[in-house]
Write a structure and sequence with these properties.
This protein is mainly beta. Helix content is about 15%, strand content about 45%. The chain starts with a helix and ends with a strand. The structure holds copper (II) ion.
Length: about 130
């Protein structure tokens, strides 16, 4: 238990590269954008595969860097090149300003991931791009 805790601490301190060493999933891509004073960070698998359940970790922080709780968060996954149908997973609150959604990419190529976060009735949007291979 202690050893695991120590490992987790090392991961946090030294960065995501070490997550692989600890046997945790490697969320290697960290996106960050500020939309109207709200910072939206997104962590996703760096090299996702198609038709595989993927997790999307969203972290919301305010202008003072404090976690934002109680937001309504969902994602909108689209492909810039073509209509792909609706793919809008809702994120569940995990505490400490973290929200978790899961979905799958249904095709290879470039995807747009829009994170929509509604805080105190104000909608914030951040757009990120990711290429999915087979
Ligand atoms: Cu497509």
């Amino acid at each position: 238990m202690l050893k695991r805790l120590a490992c987790a601490t090392v991961c946090v301190l030294l960065g995501v590269l070490f997550l692989a060493t600890c046997g945790a999933p490697s969320y290697l891509t960290h996106f960050k954008a500020t939309a109207d004073g709200l910072t939206i960070a997104l962590e996703v698998t760096a090299s996702p595969k198609i038709n595989t359940s993927e997790q999307f970790f969203v972290t919301l922080t305010d202008a003072q860097g404090q976690p934002v709780e109680g937001a309504d968060v969902y994602l909108d996954l689209t492909m810039p090149a073509m209509p792909m149908g609706t793919n809008r997973p809702i994120a569940e609150a995990q505490g400490q300003g973290r929200y978790l959604a899961s979905s799958a990419y249904t095709m290879t190529g470039e995807w747009s991931i829009t994170v929509i976060a509604e805080v105190a009735k104000v909608e914030h949007r951040a757009l990120f791009k990711l290429t999915v291979s087979e």
